[in-house]
Write a structure and sequence with these properties.
three-stranded mixed beta sheet, Rossmann fold
Length: 332
Protein backbone atom coordinates (compact mmCIF):
# COMPACT_ATOMS: atom_id res chain seq x y z
CA UNK A 1 0.00 0.00 0.00
CA UNK A 2 1.16 3.52 -0.76
CA UNK A 3 2.27 5.74 2.09
CA UNK A 4 -0.80 6.96 3.96
CA UNK A 5 0.17 10.59 3.50
CA UNK A 6 0.93 10.44 -0.23
CA UNK A 7 -1.51 7.85 -1.53
CA UNK A 8 -4.98 7.90 -2.99
CA UNK A 9 -6.54 10.22 -0.39
CA UNK A 10 -3.90 12.92 -0.24
CA UNK A 11 -5.50 16.34 -0.73
CA UNK A 12 -8.97 14.93 -1.44
CA UNK A 13 -11.83 16.76 0.20
CA UNK A 14 -14.37 14.49 1.90
CA UNK A 15 -17.69 14.94 3.67
CA UNK A 16 -18.70 12.39 6.28
CA UNK A 17 -22.37 12.62 7.25
CA UNK A 18 -23.02 11.37 10.77
CA UNK A 19 -19.35 12.08 11.35
CA UNK A 20 -19.57 12.20 15.14
CA UNK A 21 -20.95 8.69 15.37
CA UNK A 22 -18.62 5.78 16.02
CA UNK A 23 -18.20 4.75 12.39
CA UNK A 24 -18.00 8.32 11.17
CA UNK A 25 -15.38 9.19 13.79
CA UNK A 26 -13.12 6.29 12.89
CA UNK A 27 -13.58 6.95 9.18
CA UNK A 28 -12.65 10.60 9.68
CA UNK A 29 -9.56 9.52 11.61
CA UNK A 30 -8.36 7.23 8.84
CA UNK A 31 -9.07 9.80 6.12
CA UNK A 32 -7.05 12.37 8.06
CA UNK A 33 -4.21 9.84 8.45
CA UNK A 34 -4.19 9.46 4.67
CA UNK A 35 -3.90 13.17 3.98
CA UNK A 36 -7.51 14.03 3.17
CA UNK A 37 -9.33 17.18 4.20
CA UNK A 38 -12.40 16.12 6.16
CA UNK A 39 -15.68 17.85 6.91
CA UNK A 40 -18.29 16.21 9.11
CA UNK A 41 -22.00 16.92 9.18
CA UNK A 42 -23.93 15.93 12.28
CA UNK A 43 -26.97 17.38 13.99
CA UNK A 44 -25.60 16.70 17.47
CA UNK A 45 -22.26 17.21 19.23
CA UNK A 46 -21.94 14.32 21.69
CA UNK A 47 -19.04 14.95 24.01
CA UNK A 48 -18.49 11.22 24.37
CA UNK A 49 -17.91 10.85 20.62
CA UNK A 50 -14.66 9.07 19.70
CA UNK A 51 -13.82 12.08 17.53
CA UNK A 52 -14.15 14.39 20.53
CA UNK A 53 -12.46 12.15 23.11
CA UNK A 54 -9.40 11.71 20.88
CA UNK A 55 -9.15 15.42 20.06
CA UNK A 56 -9.58 14.75 16.36
CA UNK A 57 -12.58 17.07 16.28
CA UNK A 58 -10.02 19.90 16.08
CA UNK A 59 -8.68 18.51 12.80
CA UNK A 60 -11.96 18.30 10.90
CA UNK A 61 -14.44 20.90 9.78
CA UNK A 62 -17.54 20.31 11.90
CA UNK A 63 -20.89 21.50 10.57
CA UNK A 64 -23.94 21.13 12.77
CA UNK A 65 -26.99 20.36 10.69
CA UNK A 66 -29.59 17.83 9.61
CA UNK A 67 -28.80 15.56 6.69
CA UNK A 68 -32.43 15.93 5.56
CA UNK A 69 -31.80 19.62 4.83
CA UNK A 70 -31.24 19.34 1.08
CA UNK A 71 -30.25 22.97 0.60
CA UNK A 72 -27.68 22.72 3.39
CA UNK A 73 -26.11 19.57 1.91
CA UNK A 74 -26.02 21.18 -1.54
CA UNK A 75 -24.38 24.27 -0.06
CA UNK A 76 -21.71 22.24 1.74
CA UNK A 77 -20.74 20.32 -1.38
CA UNK A 78 -20.24 23.57 -3.31
CA UNK A 79 -18.79 25.69 -0.51
CA UNK A 80 -16.07 23.19 0.38
CA UNK A 81 -15.69 21.65 -3.09
CA UNK A 82 -16.32 18.16 -1.73
CA UNK A 83 -14.95 15.33 -3.86
CA UNK A 84 -16.20 12.25 -2.00
CA UNK A 85 -19.23 11.85 0.26
CA UNK A 86 -19.45 9.07 2.84
CA UNK A 87 -23.09 8.93 3.92
CA UNK A 88 -23.28 7.41 7.40
CA UNK A 89 -25.92 9.63 9.03
CA UNK A 90 -28.78 7.49 10.30
CA UNK A 91 -31.00 6.58 13.21
CA UNK A 92 -29.30 3.20 13.88
CA UNK A 93 -30.80 2.06 17.19
CA UNK A 94 -33.23 -0.81 16.62
CA UNK A 95 -35.44 -0.28 19.72
CA UNK A 96 -35.75 3.41 18.82
CA UNK A 97 -36.80 2.48 15.29
CA UNK A 98 -39.79 0.61 16.71
CA UNK A 99 -40.80 3.40 19.07
CA UNK A 100 -40.17 6.18 16.54
CA UNK A 101 -40.81 4.60 13.13
CA UNK A 102 -41.62 7.76 11.17
CA UNK A 103 -38.57 9.61 12.48
CA UNK A 104 -36.39 6.61 11.65
CA UNK A 105 -37.72 6.39 8.10
CA UNK A 106 -37.40 10.14 7.67
CA UNK A 107 -33.74 10.22 8.66
CA UNK A 108 -32.64 6.98 7.06
CA UNK A 109 -34.59 7.24 3.80
CA UNK A 110 -35.30 10.91 3.13
CA UNK A 111 -31.88 11.83 4.49
CA UNK A 112 -30.35 9.50 1.93
CA UNK A 113 -32.44 11.00 -0.87
CA UNK A 114 -31.26 14.47 0.17
CA UNK A 115 -27.63 13.36 -0.07
CA UNK A 116 -28.25 11.64 -3.40
CA UNK A 117 -29.89 14.74 -4.86
CA UNK A 118 -27.11 16.99 -3.59
CA UNK A 119 -24.44 14.78 -5.15
CA UNK A 120 -26.39 14.39 -8.39
CA UNK A 121 -26.60 18.17 -8.87
CA UNK A 122 -23.15 19.03 -7.48
CA UNK A 123 -20.41 20.74 -9.46
CA UNK A 124 -17.66 19.04 -7.49
CA UNK A 125 -18.86 15.85 -5.78
CA UNK A 126 -17.91 12.81 -7.82
CA UNK A 127 -18.28 9.83 -5.49
CA UNK A 128 -20.77 8.59 -2.89
CA UNK A 129 -20.28 5.64 -0.56
CA UNK A 130 -23.33 4.62 1.47
CA UNK A 131 -23.39 2.87 4.84
CA UNK A 132 -25.96 0.11 4.53
CA UNK A 133 -26.25 -2.81 6.92
CA UNK A 134 -26.59 -6.54 7.29
CA UNK A 135 -30.06 -5.59 8.53
CA UNK A 136 -30.85 -5.20 4.82
CA UNK A 137 -31.41 -8.96 4.62
CA UNK A 138 -34.00 -9.04 7.41
CA UNK A 139 -34.58 -12.06 9.66
CA UNK A 140 -32.73 -15.19 8.56
CA UNK A 141 -31.87 -18.54 10.11
CA UNK A 142 -29.84 -20.10 7.32
CA UNK A 143 -26.49 -21.62 8.17
CA UNK A 144 -24.85 -20.51 4.93
CA UNK A 145 -23.44 -16.99 4.67
CA UNK A 146 -25.66 -14.45 2.91
CA UNK A 147 -24.51 -13.29 -0.54
CA UNK A 148 -25.16 -9.78 -1.85
CA UNK A 149 -27.77 -10.94 -4.36
CA UNK A 150 -30.07 -12.42 -1.68
CA UNK A 151 -33.37 -10.55 -1.44
CA UNK A 152 -34.45 -8.91 1.83
CA UNK A 153 -36.75 -10.76 4.22
CA UNK A 154 -39.29 -9.25 6.57
CA UNK A 155 -37.70 -8.09 9.82
CA UNK A 156 -39.01 -7.60 13.33
CA UNK A 157 -38.08 -3.90 13.40
CA UNK A 158 -38.43 -0.72 11.34
CA UNK A 159 -34.70 -0.09 11.08
CA UNK A 160 -34.23 -2.90 8.53
CA UNK A 161 -36.74 -1.69 5.90
CA UNK A 162 -35.37 1.84 6.24
CA UNK A 163 -31.94 0.54 5.22
CA UNK A 164 -33.45 -1.52 2.39
CA UNK A 165 -35.12 1.58 0.91
CA UNK A 166 -31.96 3.69 1.14
CA UNK A 167 -29.70 0.89 -0.14
CA UNK A 168 -31.87 0.41 -3.24
CA UNK A 169 -32.14 4.16 -3.82
CA UNK A 170 -28.35 4.56 -3.92
CA UNK A 171 -27.96 1.79 -6.47
CA UNK A 172 -30.86 3.12 -8.55
CA UNK A 173 -29.36 6.61 -8.63
CA UNK A 174 -26.10 5.11 -9.89
CA UNK A 175 -27.91 3.25 -12.65
CA UNK A 176 -30.37 6.00 -13.58
CA UNK A 177 -28.08 9.02 -13.50
CA UNK A 178 -24.66 7.49 -14.02
CA UNK A 179 -23.53 8.61 -10.57
CA UNK A 180 -20.49 6.96 -9.00
CA UNK A 181 -22.20 5.52 -5.95
CA UNK A 182 -21.85 2.20 -4.13
CA UNK A 183 -23.12 0.46 -1.01
CA UNK A 184 -21.36 -1.14 1.96
CA UNK A 185 -23.36 -3.68 3.99
CA UNK A 186 -21.80 -4.26 7.39
CA UNK A 187 -22.66 -6.92 9.93
CA UNK A 188 -22.64 -6.01 13.65
CA UNK A 189 -19.69 -3.70 14.26
CA UNK A 190 -17.91 -3.17 17.56
CA UNK A 191 -14.83 -1.41 18.82
CA UNK A 192 -13.54 1.66 20.67
CA UNK A 193 -15.97 4.54 20.67
CA UNK A 194 -19.26 2.67 20.35
CA UNK A 195 -21.68 4.55 22.58
CA UNK A 196 -24.77 2.71 21.39
CA UNK A 197 -25.26 1.08 24.78
CA UNK A 198 -28.19 -0.99 23.60
CA UNK A 199 -25.80 -3.24 21.63
CA UNK A 200 -24.23 -6.27 23.22
CA UNK A 201 -20.57 -5.30 23.65
CA UNK A 202 -21.26 -1.93 25.37
CA UNK A 203 -24.00 -3.61 27.44
CA UNK A 204 -21.57 -6.27 28.63
CA UNK A 205 -18.87 -3.74 29.47
CA UNK A 206 -21.30 -1.49 31.32
CA UNK A 207 -22.29 -4.43 33.53
CA UNK A 208 -18.66 -5.41 34.09
CA UNK A 209 -17.19 -1.99 34.76
CA UNK A 210 -20.06 -0.94 37.03
CA UNK A 211 -20.07 -4.26 38.90
CA UNK A 212 -23.69 -4.91 37.94
CA UNK A 213 -25.34 -8.30 37.39
CA UNK A 214 -24.28 -9.82 34.07
CA UNK A 215 -27.80 -9.37 32.73
CA UNK A 216 -28.73 -8.72 29.09
CA UNK A 217 -32.46 -8.31 29.60
CA UNK A 218 -35.01 -9.65 27.16
CA UNK A 219 -33.06 -8.83 24.01
CA UNK A 220 -32.49 -12.52 23.20
CA UNK A 221 -32.50 -15.99 24.70
CA UNK A 222 -28.75 -16.21 24.10
CA UNK A 223 -28.99 -18.68 21.23
CA UNK A 224 -28.93 -16.28 18.28
CA UNK A 225 -25.66 -16.37 16.34
CA UNK A 226 -24.19 -13.40 14.50
CA UNK A 227 -20.99 -12.30 12.90
CA UNK A 228 -19.06 -9.33 14.32
CA UNK A 229 -16.77 -6.87 12.57
CA UNK A 230 -14.14 -4.68 14.18
CA UNK A 231 -14.57 -0.97 13.49
CA UNK A 232 -11.22 -0.56 11.72
CA UNK A 233 -12.02 -3.41 9.35
CA UNK A 234 -15.30 -1.63 8.69
CA UNK A 235 -13.39 1.54 7.78
CA UNK A 236 -11.09 -0.40 5.50
CA UNK A 237 -14.23 -1.57 3.71
CA UNK A 238 -15.44 2.00 3.18
CA UNK A 239 -12.08 3.07 1.82
CA UNK A 240 -11.71 0.04 -0.44
CA UNK A 241 -15.10 0.69 -2.03
CA UNK A 242 -14.36 4.39 -2.52
CA UNK A 243 -10.96 3.67 -4.04
CA UNK A 244 -12.52 1.27 -6.55
CA UNK A 245 -15.80 3.05 -7.23
CA UNK A 246 -15.00 3.65 -10.89
CA UNK A 247 -15.23 -0.10 -11.43
CA UNK A 248 -18.06 -0.93 -9.05
CA UNK A 249 -20.52 1.96 -9.14
CA UNK A 250 -24.05 0.78 -8.49
CA UNK A 251 -22.96 -2.32 -6.62
CA UNK A 252 -23.20 -3.54 -3.03
CA UNK A 253 -20.52 -5.24 -0.95
CA UNK A 254 -20.81 -7.33 2.22
CA UNK A 255 -18.30 -6.93 5.03
CA UNK A 256 -18.09 -9.20 8.08
CA UNK A 257 -15.67 -10.98 10.36
CA UNK A 258 -16.48 -14.42 8.93
CA UNK A 259 -16.90 -16.20 12.25
CA UNK A 260 -20.43 -16.40 13.68
CA UNK A 261 -20.78 -16.75 17.43
CA UNK A 262 -23.83 -17.09 19.66
CA UNK A 263 -24.83 -14.13 21.80
CA UNK A 264 -24.28 -16.22 24.93
CA UNK A 265 -20.81 -17.35 23.83
CA UNK A 266 -19.89 -13.78 22.96
CA UNK A 267 -20.96 -12.56 26.40
CA UNK A 268 -18.91 -15.31 28.06
CA UNK A 269 -15.88 -14.43 25.91
CA UNK A 270 -16.11 -10.76 26.88
CA UNK A 271 -16.24 -11.77 30.56
CA UNK A 272 -13.10 -13.93 30.27
CA UNK A 273 -11.18 -11.26 28.37
CA UNK A 274 -12.23 -8.60 30.88
CA UNK A 275 -10.75 -10.17 34.00
CA UNK A 276 -10.45 -13.92 33.45
CA UNK A 277 -13.69 -14.71 35.29
CA UNK A 278 -16.29 -17.11 33.95
CA UNK A 279 -19.66 -15.43 34.35
CA UNK A 280 -22.98 -16.90 33.32
CA UNK A 281 -24.80 -14.26 31.28
CA UNK A 282 -28.50 -13.84 31.99
CA UNK A 283 -30.93 -13.66 29.06
CA UNK A 284 -34.66 -13.26 29.55
CA UNK A 285 -35.89 -13.30 25.95
CA UNK A 286 -38.48 -15.83 24.90
CA UNK A 287 -37.03 -19.15 23.83
CA UNK A 288 -36.69 -19.23 20.05
CA UNK A 289 -38.31 -22.15 18.28
CA UNK A 290 -36.01 -21.55 15.33
CA UNK A 291 -32.51 -20.27 16.02
CA UNK A 292 -31.46 -17.01 14.40
CA UNK A 293 -28.19 -17.47 12.51
CA UNK A 294 -26.83 -14.60 10.45
CA UNK A 295 -23.52 -13.92 8.79
CA UNK A 296 -22.46 -12.37 5.50
CA UNK A 297 -20.64 -13.86 2.54
CA UNK A 298 -17.66 -11.57 1.93
CA UNK A 299 -16.29 -13.39 -1.12
CA UNK A 300 -17.04 -10.45 -3.39
CA UNK A 301 -15.14 -7.97 -1.21
CA UNK A 302 -12.20 -10.34 -0.96
CA UNK A 303 -11.92 -11.05 -4.68
CA UNK A 304 -12.94 -7.69 -6.14
CA UNK A 305 -11.47 -5.30 -3.57
CA UNK A 306 -8.70 -7.34 -1.96
CA UNK A 307 -10.38 -6.73 1.41
CA UNK A 308 -10.43 -9.21 4.26
CA UNK A 309 -10.83 -8.80 8.02
CA UNK A 310 -7.55 -8.18 9.79
CA UNK A 311 -8.69 -8.29 13.43
CA UNK A 312 -9.64 -11.46 15.25
CA UNK A 313 -12.64 -11.25 17.56
CA UNK A 314 -10.47 -11.93 20.62
CA UNK A 315 -7.92 -9.22 19.77
CA UNK A 316 -10.62 -6.75 18.81
CA UNK A 317 -12.56 -7.28 22.02
CA UNK A 318 -9.40 -6.99 24.14
CA UNK A 319 -8.60 -3.65 22.53
CA UNK A 320 -12.19 -2.50 23.00
CA UNK A 321 -12.20 -3.49 26.68
CA UNK A 322 -8.98 -1.54 27.29
CA UNK A 323 -10.43 1.53 25.56
CA UNK A 324 -13.65 1.48 27.59
CA UNK A 325 -11.71 1.15 30.83
CA UNK A 326 -9.58 4.14 29.87
CA UNK A 327 -12.41 6.44 28.84
CA UNK A 328 -15.24 5.16 31.03
CA UNK A 329 -15.48 8.27 33.22
CA UNK A 330 -15.98 10.43 30.10
CA UNK A 331 -18.52 8.22 28.33
CA UNK A 332 -21.52 9.22 30.46
Amino acid sequence: MADERTGFWRDRVCLVTGGLGCGGSHLSEQLLNRGATVYVLDRVYPRNSYLVLTGLIQKVGYIQGDVRDLELVKFLLERYQIDTVFHLAAQPIVPVSNSMPYETLSINVMGTYAVLEAVRTSTFAKNLVFASSGAYYGMVSQRDPIPEEQSPNVAGNIYAPSKVAADIAVRCYAQTYGMKAAVCRFINTYGPGNTNFSTIVPTALTNLIEGMPYDFGNRDDGSSSFDYLHIRDMIRGYLAVAENIDRFSGEAFNFGGGKPISVKDLAQLISRLYDGQEREPLFHGSRKEKQVYKWLDTTKARTALGWQPSMTLEDGLSETIDWYKRFWSRLH
